[in-house]
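User: Protein folding is very new to me. Would you mind checking the protein record under this note? It all follows right here:
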Amino acid sequence: MRHIKGFVFGLVFLAVGAIWLGSSGCNADKPTQSTVPKDYPVYSWDCNLEEVYLAYHPTTNQIDTFPVSIPRPLTWNGLFASADGASLYFSLGSSVAILDLASNSLIDSLPYKAVLAVSPDNRLIAVRDDLGFYILNTSDYSEVFHDTDFVLQGTFSTSSTGFYANCYSDAGVPSRYYVCYVDLADTLLPVVRVPFDDGALMEIMPSLDETKWFLCLAYEECHTYFEVYDVSTDSIVFEDEIGAGLGELEMSVDGRYVFYATPGSDHDLCLPPPRSIKVYDVLGNSIHCDISTTGVFDPPHDDYGVPVGNMCATPDGRSLVATGSPGYYFLVVDIESMSITRYLSLSSSEIYCITGQIAP
C-alpha cells in the first residue's frame, strides 16, 4: 500500500465484420439476459470527415452517419451527449455547439472552449476556458460555479451533487497534478484540492458512494497505472500497471466494476499496450477478469487483437461499448458474461471519442 502525500478529508462506418463470440469472455459460462435490450446509440465523429457525426447502435451493430453544419471537435474527447440522450455538445476550441438530435439542428452556442462533463440528472454541465472551469445550469446556461484551476478532464458524481476534476498547476501549488472536488450540495460550494505528487493524474472517477476514487496516473513516459484511492485513509489501496498511454476508465452502472485500458503511446521506447480490458471488482478490491481482444477480429488483427481506447457503458447496465486503437473498430462487451459479443470493423473511418446518454 502506497500512501499519498496529501490529507484526509471527510468525504468518508463501411466494411462490416459482425461476429457473435459469447463463449470468448473471462466468465463465459454465465447465461445471457433473455429480454430484448433497448437501443442506446453511442455517438462519435470520423477523424477523416468534416461536418458529420456518427451514431453506433450496439444492439444491431450498425452505424448511421449524419451531416451537420458543425466542425469536428478540436480535442479527442470533445464530444458529450446530454444525460437524456437528446442533444450533443461539440467542443470547438472557441465555443461549444449544442446539437438537438431529434431535429439534427444547432440550437445554441456557448462561449467556452470545451465541455468537461454532463451531470447524470441532466441539470448541470461543466465547461472550461482560459480562465478556469465553470458549472452551468442546462436550463438556461447560467453560471452556478467558477474557479480558476486549470482542468484537464472532469466528471460528476452519480448523485450529481459533486464535481471531480484532474487539475494541473505550472506553479506546483498544491502540486502539479491534483484533484479538485466541488461539493455542489453545500451552498458555499467549497473546493477541496488533493495533491498527487508522485504521478501525472490523467483521469478520476468516484465510486457510487464517493468513498473511493478510481484514478489513472502516469509515471514517466511509458508507465500508466490504474489506482484506487481510499478517501477515509488518504491512501492508495490498489494499483495495477496498465502500460503506456493516457489510460481510460469506465464504471458499470451498478458501481460494481471499473473497466480500465490504455490505447498505448507513440513513444519509441514504450512497450506495446495490452490488447485487453481489465475489470476491477470494487467490493473485492481485486481484478475480476481480463477481457482479451485476441481472437476476436478478422485478419490481420485476429491473432493478436488490438488495444482499447475510449469506453462507454450503456445506461441499462448491459453493455460496454469501446473503440479499438487506433479507432478502426467498435467493440461491444456483454457485462453479465464479461465477453466481447460483437464488433464492427471500419474500413475507411477513424473514430476515437465515444459518448452516450447516462440516464436510462
Residues 2-345 form a domain with the Methylamine Dehydrogenase; Chain H fold (CATH 2.130.10.10). The longest strand covers residues 235-243. The two ends are 37 Å apart (CA to CA).
